[in-house]
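FIELD: query
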Amino acid sequence: MGSTSTAQGQGPAGLGAAAGGLRPHRLFSIPEGVKHLDGLELARVTEAFRAWASRPRRSDVRVSRKRLWLIYMLLRFTGAKLGEVLGLDDSRDFDLDQGLVRFCTGTRRDNAAREVQLPEALVRELSQVLDDPAFAAWRGRLFRMDPGHVRRKFYERAAECGLPKDCLNPNALRRSRAIELLREDVPLKVVQSILGHSTTDLTAAYLNFSEQDVKRIARHFLEAEKRKTSARNSFFGKITRVTAGDIQSLVELTTLSGRRVFSMVTNNSVAVLGLVEGAFASAVVKAPWVGLCAGDEPPATCAENLFQGQVETVNQGGISVEVIVRLPDGLRVCSIISAASARDLGLAQGDRVWVMFKSLSVILNVD
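FIELD: result
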């Protein structure tokens, strides 16, 4: 195990608005009546579908459920219409070398196609299925299923996850994908192209900015150049557990990528800020409170938050050193350590490293 640099001193537990960290794409609200699933609900439904598809032992049932699983995954990650997915020809509408699926805009196969990039995990699953002899009889019509049957299976998974069935139908998945992309700062025009909307107005119908939202966003960009902050690290997600103690509570926040972040706050702050399960919040930790440990093996530490990543940059200073670590989900974490600790660690770009910080160092902001 490599040497360890711990944060020098621990900040008091506290809550409040971090200086900076405003994410304008998080500010829009969804118009009333737009049924959709948030990131954590999508993750829960996906796991329910995965477990359901892998459960049967009979070959014919396994094949049928695997086909439905792939239909769900294509709807989940392309935002396509159900008819578009059910109309796919698996022998010619996929370019798995490029990780693409092509949705034709008309009945003729030579019409202009809308290309949508697929996640690597889905490309691997598609490749495995297409190479599996058990699916050979379905080649060219792997996705040809009765729409009513597909919808019924979706409703069953919704019930299994405790969700209303109108939140898990193909149209709701299409809206959910659009909202997910927009929240990740994907430009409106790109989201329009992915979903195949004829105009950006159709895509923008999923968004709703209040007058207060507009003012906050405008103020954010006007002040962006002059605002500086030491609170560099922000994790956005939903509060999934609040464990109350005599004086303090341990709050668990789960990010949209499934990462769990823990914060210790006073019981009074929990009540005042309304920190309840299901509420969205941001967890912020200042760079000097983030410790580092080199090596592949997880370090022995009392820090409740421990994540492995890869060193992206090392900015050397005379007294302190700034290290930017990229986590597997793409999030970047900044740590500021002493120059002496940096020499002991000997970190360079590309090195594997563990980042750690205590729950007492995490500030929560309610969105």
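FIELD: remark
The chain has eleven helices and 14 strands.
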